[in-house]
Amino acid sequence: MQGLVLLSVLLCASCHISLSLTNSTASNGTVADGLLENGNFENAPNATNMKGTVVVGRYTIPGWVNEGFVEYIKSGQKQGDMLLVVPEGAYAVRLGNEASIKQKIKVIKGMYYSITFSAARTCAQEERLNVTVAPDSGVLPIQTVYSSSGWDNYAWAFKAIYEVAELIIHNPGVEEDPACGPLIDAVAIKALYPPRPTNKNSVKNGGFEEGPYVFPNTPWGVLIPPNIEDDHSPLPAWIVESLKAVKYIDSAHYFVPQGRRAVELVAGKESAIAQIVRTIVGKMYRLSFAVGDANNSCVGSLVVEAFAGKDTLKVPYESKGKGGFKRAELKFKAVSNRTRIMFLSTFYTMRSDDFSSLCGPVLDDVKLLSIQTSPNP
Fold first, then answer.
1. For residue 81, what pLDDT is reported?
2. Residue 28, pLDDT score
3. Which of 85, 125, 166, 369 has CA 20 to 30 A from 23's CA?
4. What distance in Å separates the CA atoms of residue 227 and residue 243, rounded to the nearest whole number?
């Protein structure tokens, strides 16, 4: 009898791995940009493997392996006086203390990828999530809520070391109520193609066109978490070196000054992005960029502070919250072979239509070019 049980478990594990590696695929057989297999958890567990909302068994949720106290949540379900809402479809999962979900993904060895997922906290003020694709891992703080819905989209990036990557989303929290923990929904992946500088722009990815997957049905952008380095950034070439996140926005849901993507600096001086660019000592340079608002009711006096080495510039923008932008430039002389450029927002700002969502100035179309100087007569 024990042999039959063990055989059943092994068969389940084999089925799971097979399903995980045959989700939506690109022409080369690897995972395609978009939701992972059952990434929005709409393919429900079998009712016989449920104890109320609690998932029983590691392979109960199709496409996923779960560990610890995991709940399968239906949109509209109540937790005390709070009504739980699900952004993508009708179902999500909740991770209790030390609980996790994981999935194997077929990828291209050596390629960079970003993971985007929706998360909402339900109990503690200091909730966080560990996201891992070995050997890379990161801690994503989710205590600050940036949208009035309570849900935010987060991005995290990794470099594929093997042809099969195992994504793990883990709740390391320890709460008095073991059922407390964040809700997870809509997990997606996107291949990243790190841009290079050109003879027209020394800044890489200056238009922010290369970045994480943006869900078409969730109009609140994607948060790039703090303390993200440029070697594994979901916003290639850029560093988020602040205490709070920056928001990656798209033209389908926001006003964007140039192209299809931009960055919104949503947390004042705690929301900053930077990049190290190559320069020639003694040469003059022009750093140009666009500052505006995202047409998201972010009304008031917005200011972007730009830094290039030791030179700084403050760019004020009076926002009516209906979309628009202005261009600015900072001229400086390079004093090093590498110059750090950085942008941050001077003020904290809240949206005028709900007074609960952080917002800020939009940054886009960042360019750096050397200025040709005339030789002395």
1. 64
2. 67
3. 85
4. 7
